[in-house]
Amino acid sequence: MSLCDLCESQLDRPGHVPPHPQLAISATLRMASGQNAFVYRCASCGQTLLLASDDEEAPDRWTRLDADGWR
Length: 71
Ligand SMILES: [Zn+2]
Prior knowledge:
Layout: H1 5-10, E1 23-30, E2 36-42, E3 48-52, E4 61-64
Antiparallel strand pairs: 1-2, 2-3, 3-4
The structure holds zinc ion (ZN).
The site of zinc ion has 9 residues, from helix 1.
């Protein structure tokens, strides 16, 4: 399954870019670093995007959440 155009353009954008209209928040996670991460699911393509920062120093960023690699 591939990302729709909206998700494609969302990826790798900084966290201040708002989620596109088809994205609905599905979970809030607490990262090991103590940071919160936000999981969004796309109603259009069914893919899951993650809004999180790698550490306290790094700004939030939109990334793709690979379900197979998520534990
Ligand atoms: Zn999508």
